[in-house]
Amino acid sequence: MSVSEIRRRRGPRRALTEDEILDAALDLLDEGGADAASIRGIAARVGVAPNAVYTYFPDKAAVVRGLVERLLGGVDHDVFADRARPWHERVEALALELRAHLSAHPGAVPLMIGGPMDGPHALTLNERLLQLLADAGLGPADAARASYLLIVYVFGSIALEVADTSRPGPLPPEAERVAARKAAFSATPADDFPRSAEAAATMAGYVSTEQYLWGLHRILGGIAAREATPEELGPVDLRDRTGLREAHSA
Amino acid sequence: MSVSEIRRRRGPRRALTEDEILDAALDLLDEGGADAASIRGIAARVGVAPNAVYTYFPDKAAVVRGLVERLLGGVDHDVFADRARPWHERVEALALELRAHLSAHPGAVPLMIGGPMDGPHALTLNERLLQLLADAGLGPADAARASYLLIVYVFGSIALEVADTSRPGPLPPEAERVAARKAAFSATPADDFPRSAEAAATMAGYVSTEQYLWGLHRILGGIAAREATPEELGPVDLRDRTGLREAHSA
DNA sequence: ACATTATCTGGACGGCGTACAGGAGCGTTC
DNA sequence: GAACGCTCCTGTACGCCGTCCAGATAATGT
Asked: Which of A154-158, A194-198, B193-197 holds the top average pLDDT?
C-alpha cells in the first residue's frame, strides 16, 4: 500500500474505479434482476450522480460488456486443465463449472446472450475449449464445430432454465425449482397434451443438473462417434429461407 | 363475409383486434428490433392512443407472450408429420423448419428466451416432438430429456446467431453473415488466440446452416446410441453450487 | 501563477410503461 | 323511447430510463 500511483491524467482524482462500478452493477443484478442494474441505480449505489458513470464507460452497453467479461473471467480453468484425464471428463468438468458459475448470477445470463461474446475472457475460454478438443484428437474443423455445439448447449441450457424462473434474485435451490416445474407442468391439461403431462410426471424425479448432464453426455457421445467414423455430411436439403430472400439481387 | 358478429360487450365497438396489434408489433419488431416494439410505437402504428392497447392486453408482457405464441403457431407441422420417414429425418426437418421460421423474425428471439414458453402453441410443439421421439422408440423419460436437449440446441443456436448480428432489421443473407464473421474473427490477435484464429479460418468455408446441422447430427447420433445401449448415467460428481448454497437450512 | 484538462454536478430532453379521470358510444332495461 | 350502465378511447400525468449540455472544481504541465 501507500504506493503513489503515477497519475497521467490532468484533472481531479477519480472518485471510483471501473471495478467498483462493475461490483455495484453485479450486486444490483443479483438483487433485483436485469432491470435493477440501471445506470442511475449503479450511480446511486456508488454514491455519485448518474452521469458520472459516463466518465468510466461510454454507454450502458459498455458496462454490460464489462460485466459479462468479469463473469467469464471468474471461471475456474483449473478444473478442466488436467490433460491427463479423458477429454470427455474435462469437457464435463468445464460444463459443470460454467453452469455453476453462471447460475450464481442468473440476471446476467440474458445480458450474455443479448450480445456477442467477443471479449478477451470469452475468447480465452473458447481457446481453452478448442485446445481441449484438439487434445481429444479432433481436427481443426471438427473442433471448431464441436466447440460451437458445446457452447450453444451450455449457454442455451442455462438461458432456458433462467427464463423459466425469471423472477429477480438468486436462483432457488434445485429441489424447489423441480417442484415448481412439476406443479406448473402438471397443471397443463393432460387431455390436450398427454405426452407433455407424462413427461412432466416422469421428469419430476430428476434434478435439473442430471438432465443437463444427460444432454451433455449425448453430445459427447455424438462427437466421439464422429471422431471414430468421420463420414461426410449426408445429402441434406438445405432450405434456408433467410438466405433466399435477397437472392437474385445485386 | 358480412357475417354480423354477435356482440356481447356493452360499450362501443372496438376499433381493433388483438391480431392487428400483434401484426403491428411484429412489423415494428422486424423493422427496428426489439426496442422498436414499444407500446407507444404499436399504438401509433395502429392509430390509437398508447393506453388504448391496454384494452386488449393487460400489460406489455402479455403482448410479448401473444407475439411469441403467434410465431410458434406459424410453424409448419406437416414437414415432420410423416411417420413413415426415419425419425432422425423428421427431427431434422423440424429443426430446419423452426430455424427458418424463427430466423425470419430475429428480433423475436430474445423475447422468446426471455420468458417461459408455456403457451398452447409452445406446448403443442413440444407435444409433437415428444410424439416423434416416442415413435423413434424412446421411453418417456428419455423422450422428455431428448426433447429438452433438442429444444435447447435449436433455440440456443438461433439465439447465439442472432446475438452475433444484433443490429435491427432482418438477418442478412447467410453468405454475408459468414463473411462478416470471418472478418471479425480474423481480426482476433492470432498470437494470443491461435486456435480461435485457426478455427475462424477453417470455419469461414462453412455456411452456418451446415454448422447447425453438424451439431444436430451429433446430437441425433448421441440419442440413437443411447437408444441402442441404454446404460445408466455414469458416476458423476455433481457439484451444483446453486443447490448447495441453501443446504442445511429449513 | 497560469493555462489546460479531467472529473463531477445540476438540470434537461425525449422515450418508456402504465395509472387515473373523463367523455363518448352502444346494448340493456324500464 | 328514454334512462341506465358498461365498454372503449383519450388527455394527462407520474416515475423511471439512457444520455447530453453547461458549469464549477480540482489537479497537472508549463
From this structure: A154-158
